[in-house]
Predict the structure.
Amino acid sequence: MKFAVKMLAMAAMAASMGGAWAQKGETVKMVRIDPLTGLLGPVGQSQDRGYKFFAEKFSGAGNPAGVKFEFTTLDNKLSPTESLNVLKAAIDSGVRYIIQGNGSSVAVALSDAITKHNERNPGKEVIYLNDSAVDPDLTNSKCSYWHFRFDADTSMKMEAMSSFIAEQKDITKVYLLNQNYSHGHQVAKFAKETLARKRPDIKIVGEDLHPLAQTRDFAPYIAKIKASGADTVITGNWGSDLSLLVKAANEGGYTGKFFTYYAGVTGTPTALGKNGAGRVYQIAYNHYNMGGQMGKWQDEFKKKYNDDFYTGSTIRIFETLSAAMAKAKSTDPVKVAAALEGIRVKSFNGEVEMRKADHQLQQPLYMTVWEPASAKFPYSPENTGMTLVPLKEYPNYVSSTPTSCQMKRPA
C-alpha cells in the first residue's frame, strides 16, 4: 500500500510538472556563444547588450507565451574549438536554447555538434538560433532540423545587391575583397555568378582573401584596388575588418564605391565618417531608419547604453520563439522546433516566415547608402552626423533563393 501511494504521489508530481512546463511565468534560459574579446569583441559586446535589452522587453506580458527570458553570452574568442567547449558547459548547466552568429565557421561546428547531441541525448534536445552566420551551406548541404537562421544568407543578400548594381550604369569594374573563411568565399562566389547573369559587361578586375580578424593595415589592399582601376569594391567584411578597410581607403585616397553587408556594425560608422558619403552601400534586412516601434527601441537603447542597436534578428528571435512556444503550449525544444517550422509572425517590417524546407527566415531586404542625417532620416550611428538612407526595398519573394536542403526530421 505504501508503495502504491508513493507511486501515485510521484505520478501526480510528474503530472503537475508537465502542466507547469506549459504555464506562463516559466523561465527560458538562452546562451549566446560569440566573441566578447579580441578585434571583434566590440561587436559581440554590443550584441550582448541588445539581447539583454530585448530579453527584458519581451519577457512576461511582452510575449504571447508569457515566459520569462534569461540571457547570457559566453565568450568563444571566435574559435570553433572554444565554441564547442562553452557549448558543452551551457548544455551541462541545463540550457536548451543556444544563439550564435558571428562567424560561419563557428556556426557550422555548433550546428553539427548540436545535431549529434540531440541524436544521442533524447529528452535533452537543444535548439540552435542563428542570428548572423550567413553561409548558405547552413540551410543547404549542411542543413539541420535543429538549426534556425534569422539573418538572410549570403546568396539572398547578393541576389538583391546584384540587382541594384545591375541598374548602376557607372559601375563597370569590380574588385572582390573578402575574409578568408566560408562567408568571404561565398560572397565572392555569388558576386561573380549573379553579376555574370545580370550585368555580363561588368569586369571582375581583382580578387583577394585576407585572414579573418587579423589584418590591421589594409593599405596594401587599397593600393592593389587602385592599381586595378576598379570603380567598385564588393566586400562581405564585418567588424574591424571592414572598419580598417574603410579607414585605409579614406587615407589612401580611394574614391570608388563600396558595396557591403555590414556598414552599420560597431566601429564602421566612425571609420566611414563623412568621407564615405554617397559611395558606401549596405544590403541588410533592416537599417537605422526603420521608424515606428523599431525607432523607439533604438532611441531607448542608445539612451540606456550609449550604443547603437543594429542586429534586428535579435528581435525576430524573441518574436518567433515566443510565438512558437505559445503555439506549442510548451517550452520543450522538441515541441518548439516543430512549431517553429513554417511559422509566420508580424515583425517590425512586415510578415516574416520561417521556411519549413530549410529553416531559413524569409524576409525583406534593404539597400541603403551612407549619407548625412536629415529630418527625414535622423538616426546617426556613433554620433557621426551620418546615417544609412534607404534606397530600395526587396520583398521576401525577390530576396528568396532556392534550397537544396534534404531535411532529416526526428521520428
Observations:
- The chain has two domains: 22-152+292-362, 155-284+364-399.
- The first strand starts at residue 27 and ends at 34.
- Confidence is low (pLDDT under 50) at residues 1-21.
- The chain has 13 helices and 15 strands.
